[in-house]
Amino acid sequence: MSFREFTTYNRWQKIFSLIFAVLIWATVRQGVEQGGGAPVVPEGYSRTFENLPIRVLTLASELSQFRVNPSHVTVVLRGRPDVLNRLRPADVEVYVNLAEISPADAERHPVHVNAPGAQLGSVSPQEVLIERVQIPDTRRAQENP
To answer: Do 127 and 70 fall into the same domain?
Structure first.
């Protein structure tokens, strides 16, 4: 088959296919640019979890205790209704990660949320104050009665 026959045979199908491919490419590109590639979830399907406790993740070698202020957050999750209805508050992980950094005596840290099958809508507050709590040395108190 010559090049001329190749370009003229089924010409309208080829033009239609090319236009359709360009439209699909433009739609996908626009969706990625606007939504960051996140799955599209209808706005109407959300569920709010209030008073979820915040866990503090530290290294195993870290013996300090920490106080979190505020100690509870409100989380709004988006997703499919069947998934959101099955979620319990215990399934939603809310934490502050101190394992990667050496925390000072008091500083603000972002709150992270993991929820299986759901997308994070919002968390309030987004940051919490973490304070290092001094633990009294009980060994000295026991040795010197």
So the answer is: yes
Give CA–CA dist 91/87, Å, rounded.
6
Q: Residue 76 belongs to what domain range?
A: 46-133
Measured CA to CA, the distance from residue 60 to residue 33 in angstroms comes to 40
Q: How many domains does the chain have?
A: 2
Q: Which residue, among 125, 137, 120, has the nearest Cα to 68 in the 3D structure?
A: 125
Q: pLDDT in tens for each of the 145 residues of the chain?
A: 788 887 788 888 989 999 999 999 998 888 777 766 555 555 568 889 999 999 888 887 777 778 888 889 999 998 888 888 898 999 999 998 887 766 566 688 889 999 888 888 889 898 888 887 766 655 555 555 5
Taking the C-alpha atoms of residue 98 and residue 58, their distance in angstroms, rounded to an integer, is: 5
Q: How far apart are the C-alpha atoms of 119 and 43, rounded to whole Å? A: 11
Do the strands 55-57 and 93-97 form a parallel or antiparallel pair, or are they unpaired?
parallel
Per-residue b or e along 9-39, where b marks 16 or more CB atoms closer than 10 Å to that residue's CB:
eeeeeeeeeeeeeeeeeeeeeeeeeeeeeee
93 part of a folded domain? yes
